Amino acid sequence: MTINRRQMAVLAGGLLVLITAGTQAGVFNSKHNLGATGLNAASTFDGTREVCVFCHTPHGGDGAADAPLWNRNIDPRGFATYDQMGTTTLDAGVEPVGSVSLACLSCHDGTQAMDSMLNEPGSGRDVPGFSRGLWSGQAAAVGGRIGSPTVVTNLGKDLTNDHPVGIQYAGGGYALSNPAGPGYDKDFHPASSEISGVSRNWWVNTAGGTASFERTDMKLYTRTATVGGFVGEPQPYVECASCHDPHVDYNPTFLRIDPAGSQVCLTCHNK
After folding, report:
1. Which of 9, 47, 167, 248 is deepest in the core (most CB within 10 A)?
2. Extended strands (E) in the chain
3. Global pTM?
4. Cα–Cα dist 171/4, whole Å
5. Per residue in 137-158, pLDDT tens?
């Protein structure tokens, strides 16, 4: 069959639509799309059609953030953490809030407007309609924050009622000099690891996963311990993004796997 130029153009256009739809999956179809194209009308901002800009910028990001090209202010001060509850079941070292969790909390600690960025759309120029730190969506009544103090997405600075972050995985025992960890642990499933570049990465395999890290596995984040076991050594820690992937749209609250049957909890906890 011979295809003329008109038919070729139609086919090319259709292919472009498919490619565009594929690239717009993930964060585009999630609540983290805060721009004018967002699907959740209560959380969209009509000052820009950009999607990534609310978190990332190609220039002028926060170099101290443990997240790529971070476009928001990072403030590590004033957090209360789970270990301050004094629970007797906590047997791991807990670091000050840091790593990728600080990037998450630069929105979810409820102290900054959702459209407060280091580099605004359009190379930081004054964009018509851009509110410069006064959110125009659901949070206008609370100064542009992510929501009222009563909603779970507004974690605030008090993290004592949230799953620990900056905590050694499985009570500690994993480290650069002991990558396989402490051996059998009745409370936790073992972590897997591999060398990537010049560092070692750890994760916990989810059911049905492969031996290599996949984004549906529970990701652990390497930090150098200042408390707990193997002080001074890089080792795996649980952070916000261990359970949540901010770029997915296929599970509620950006969870890496379906929470049905407590799969998220039971991937790490052996209960």
Report:
1. 167
2. 167-168, 192-196, 199-204, 218-219, 221-224, 234-238
3. 0.83
4. 66
5. 444 445 555 666 677 788 889 9
